[in-house]
Structures are given as structure tokens and as C-alpha cells.
Q: What sequence folds into this?
């Protein structure tokens, strides 16, 4: 099934540094990553709800993914709307528009209607929270937890 998966850039240097911590830190690292993914998923879903009717249908398909880095997924085979259309048939048109399918807004060459816009707007907050989470982890494991 078609779906969009999103990973936030900029966390690789942080993950590299976290590899220097003891193995016990892995669970804590994953907890921080998941909390950030929950935050990001909430912001993306909220943006979808206020963007358009088609985008609003996608809000229920946005969910966080567990892992070290904040990741979300959207779309998939979930049935949405009064006709029960699979989400993947609406996702890309609602996010990027279309040139040939008139049920979608105009195609944005390289632009975004709701998902990427929300992700870019959330980056400073995600980066700041990731930094605070890493600082807490380093302090905790530096003290011997």
C-alpha cells in the first residue's frame, strides 16, 4: 500500500553521539524518539484537519512510529470518507495536488499543502526537545542512572 513515511533530518549526529552511551540507554533513547514522534504526528494531523476536506480525511491515518528517531507514517489502506476510499488514493493528491485529477487542488511543484508544511514548522520545536532529551539521557547515564 502506498503511504508516506517521514523521518526528521538532523537527528543522525545526535544518534551517533548516543551510541557512546551504555547499552542501557537504548530504551531511554527510543522513549525520547517516540515522544518526539507523538508530538510530530499530532502537529501533522492537526494541520491536516484544518487544511481541506481531503486532507482532514488523512488526519486519522497519521501515526507515530516507535524508534530512536522521530518518525511518522500516513496513508496506507485505511478506508476513509463516506465512500470508504483507501487513504493511499487520496494522500498524495491532498498533499501535493495533481495535474490531471480534477478532484485535487493544483499540483505544487516541490510544494506542500499540509504534511511537509507542518513538519517544517515543527522542526525547531522537535530539535529543541530532542536536544533536551539527549541532555537528560547524558546526565542520567553520566551519574550512573
A:
Amino acid at each position: 500500500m502506498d503511504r508516506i513515511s517521514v523521518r526528521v533530518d538532523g537527528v543522525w549526529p545526535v544518534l551517533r553521539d548516543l551510541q557512546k552511551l551504555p547499552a542501557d540507554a537504548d530504551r531511554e533513547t527510543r522513549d525520547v524518539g517516540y515522544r518526539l514522534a507523538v508530538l510530530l504526528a499530532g502537529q501533522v494531523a492537526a494541520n491536516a484537519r484544518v487544511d481541506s476536506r481531503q486532507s482532514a480525511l488523512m488526519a486519522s491515518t497519521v501515526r507515530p512510529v516507535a524508534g530512536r528517531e522521530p518518525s511518522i507514517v500516513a496513508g496506507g489502506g485505511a478506508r476513509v470518507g463516506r465512500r470508504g476510499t483507501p487513504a493511499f488514493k487520496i494522500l498524495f493528491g491532498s498533499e501535493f495536488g495533481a495535474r490531471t485529477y480534477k478532484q485535487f487542488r493544483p499540483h505544487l511543484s516541490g510544494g506542500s499543502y499540509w504534511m511537509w508544511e507542518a513538519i517544517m514548522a515543527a522542526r525547531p520545536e522537535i530539535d529543541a526537545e530532542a536536544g533536551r532529551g539527549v541532555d537528560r539521557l547524558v546526565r542520567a547515564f553520566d551519574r550512573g542512572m
The longest strand covers residues 3-7.
